[in-house]
Specification:
- The termini are far apart.
- The chain has 3 domains: about 5-145 and about 275-340, FAD/NAD(P)-binding domain; about 160-270, FAD/NAD(P)-binding domain (3-Layer(bba) Sandwich), CATH 3.50.50.60; about 345-460, Enolase-like, domain 1, CATH 3.30.390.
- Strands 1, 2, 3, 4, 5, 6 and 17 form a 7-stranded mixed β-sheet that branches.
- Helix 1 (about 15-25) packs parallel to helix 9 (about 320-335), helix 3 (about 45-65) runs antiparallel to helix 4 (about 80-105) and helix 3 packs parallel to helix 6 (about 185-195).
- A hairpin with a 5-residue loop joins strand 21 and strand 22 (about 410-415).
- The protein has helices at about 15-25, 40-45, 45-65, 80-105, 165, 185-195, 215-225, 280-285, 320-335, 365-370, 385-390, 420-430, 435-440, 450-460, and strands at about 5-10, 30-35, 110-115, 115-120, 125-130, 130-140, 145-150, 160, 175-180, 200-205, 230-235, 235-245, 245-255, 260-265, 265-270, 275, 310, 350, 355-360, 375-380, 395-400, 410-415.
- The chain has about 475 residues and is an alpha/beta fold.
- Helices cover about 35% and strands about 25% of the residues.
- The longest helix has 25 residues, at about 80-105.
- Bound molecules: flavin-adenine dinucleotide and 1,4-dihydronicotinamide adenine dinucleotide.
- The site of 1,4-dihydronicotinamide adenine dinucleotide has 25 residues, from helix 6 and strand 18.
């Protein structure tokens, strides 16, 4: 039987990063993955394929809607080849997954394919095609991730009533896609199919889309997506989803408790994700789950069993790839006797629609709830030279700073490339910058980043330069 210092169960961004960091720190490491490709949800059916389709559909939409204004004429009709778009996406995914395999080999990490389940707290069975092998591990890191959640009354047939996994590989553009849940997945994939020509209707239970983000972002994003033709029903509670042949009928109660009926040919259910521990046999090791089915961990991501840790989507907190990665690194370093720390307040959140939405720190709603006195500085993207040059004029940057100390408490942005711009805000907040600090830093001209400087000027002394 092979013996390891550390065994990692699950090869998503949490698991594979944990394995690399363990190996870097000199530990003999194994990683167990039930699928034949490494990379987990993120690489196979999450971040990477969704971004590939967002990019491809963006090009298509630009060719149809924006090339002409730039003086680019396409003789004849711009045509969509969905099969080729999907093939490109599949090839991006497979190259990225192969990259993870390369990293495992480079770091001399043993990769086991099969379902990992605890035999006891130091032994793991690995089952594949009816055969079982057992390894011994001094420490184990559970990184088994998450799966799409569903509503109890919806039957997911995975053909027309689908989750994100199926939506990433449709063989046709829906005529009318009804999206249940106006969160990240619903809006990103809704925008993909809207750009490809589908009618898209989003039904959201709460009173605004992306409800966990600052409400200024929800408002601006909904306004822009509406302009792009996406329809919204907020404060609307879906009651039933029925399929009859190719037709899907959705019944829901709107904000006035009046029943509405929507008909479409596809229904994307994107109401969140649930932690995944099926088949793990956590009980055999004595590992406790919490009331939401997540592996319960302390501040050191340690379970109730001393030598077993858990990270990523399967534990509390945001279900984000970079959060899982930070936790993977943290656990490896803890096992090696170091004293790492994660500031969860500084994990940014991004929605990769166009315009992109990005945020870090506290929202205005949170500051109000916590009774913190704050100042606000806002700057619209349309006032930037860079935005006018590209034509991407939608959006804004909003900075919230402590009323007395001027320390930046939250940065919220929507606009072109804000997914990348948010890194500046994370850096500033990591070093506990004041809004004035940001406002006095030189930002290259012309860039979208100038909006961050301008919003900081607005927050610190209410003196933006270009508005
Ligand atoms: P996962 O990536 O879910 O990996 C868990 C792995 O464990 C899986 O490969 C699974 O097969 C394996 N496994 C489970 N049980 C066992 C077992 N018993 N034995 C062996 N293997 C097992 N996040 C972002 O930050 N940015 C994005 O742009 C983004 N886009 C997304 C788009 C979509 C459509 C979806 C669905 C998600 C997206 N996410 C994004 C979320 C991101 O994918 C997850 O937060 C991230 O993958 C979590 O990483 P993880 O390592 O915890 O788990
Ligand atoms: P989500 O939590 O982002 O959004 C779910 C939405 O569904 C919420 O707005 C919620 O109010 C709504 N909802 C819940 N029940 C409902 C009901 N009965 N009827 C109508 N609406 C309902 O979850 P989503 O979009 O499924 O994504 C899952 C996870 O994947 C998220 O936690 C997210 O962090 C991650 N992800 C991250 C991405 C990114 O970072 N860009 C991209 C895609 C996914």
């Amino acid at each position: 039987m092979s013996t390891y210092d550390v065994a990692v169960i699950g090869s998503g961004p949490g698991g594979y990063v944990a394995a690399i960091r363990c190996a870097q720190l000199g530990m003999k490491t194994a990683i167990i993955e039930k699928y034949s490709t490494l990379g987990g949800t993120c690489l196979n059916v999450g971040c990477i394929p969704s971004k590939a389709l967002l990019d491809s559909s963006h090009h298509y939409h630009d060719a149809i809607a924006h090339f002409e204004e730039h003086g680019i004429e396409i003789p004849g009709e711009v045509k969509l080849n969905l099969e080729k778009m999907m093939e490109r996406k599949a090839s991006v995914v497979s190259q990225t997954c192969d990259g993870v395999k390369f990293l495992m080999d480079k770091n001399k990490i043993d990769v086991y394919e099969g379902v990992g389940s605890f035999k006891d707290k130091t032994h793991i069975n690995i089952d594949k095609d009816g055969e079982t092998q057992t390894i011994e591990a001094k420490k184990t890191i559970i990184a088994t991730g998450s799966k799409p959640a569903n509503l109890p009354f919806i039957e997911l047939d995975k053909e027309r009533v689908i989750t994100s996994t199926e939506a990433l590989k449709l063989k046709e553009v829906p005529k009318h896609m009804i999206v249940i849940g106006g969160g990240v997945i619903g809006l990103e994939l809704g925008q993909v199919y809207r750009r490809l020509g589908a009618e898209v209707t989003v039904v959201e239970f709460l009173d605004r889309i992306i409800p966990t983000m600052d409400s200024a972002l929800s408002k601006e994003l909904q306004k822009v997506l509406k302009k792009q033709g996406i329809k919204f029903h907020t404060s609307t509670k879906v009651k039933s989803v029925e399929r009859n042949g190719d037709e899907i009928t959705i019944k829901a109660d709107d904000k006035k408790d009046k029943e509405i009926e929507l008909k479409g040919d596809y229904c994307l259910v994107s109401v969140g994700r649930r932690p995944y521990t099926d088949g793990l046999n956590a009980e055999a090791a004595g590992v406790k789950l919490d009331d939401k089915g997540r592996v319960e961990v302390n501040d050191h991501l340690q379970t109730n069993v001393e030598n077993i840790y858990a990270i990523g989507d399967v534990v509390r907190g945001a279900m984000l790839a970079h959060k899982a990665e930070e936790e993977g690194t943290m656990v490896a370093e803890l096992i090696a006797g170091q004293k790492p720390h994660i500031d969860y307040n500084l994990i940014p959140g991004v929605v990769y629609t166009w315009p992109e939405v990005a945020a870090v720190g506290k929202t205005e709603e949170q500051l109000k709830e916590e009774g913190v006195k704050y100042k606000e500085g806002k700057f619209p993207m349309r006032a930037l030279g860079r935005s006018r040059a590209s034509g991407d004029i939608d959006g804004l940057v909003k900075i919230l700073a402590d009323e007395k100390t001027d320390e930046v408490l939250g940065v919220h942005m929507i606009g072109a490339r804000t997914a990348d711009l948010i890194a500046e805000a994370v850096t500033a907040m990591e070093f506990r910058a004041s809004a004035e600090d940001i406002s006095r830093m030189s930002h290259a001209h012309p860039t979208y980043a100038e909006a961050v400087k301008e919003a900081a000027l607005a927050a610190t002394e209410n003196r933006p330069l270009h508005i």
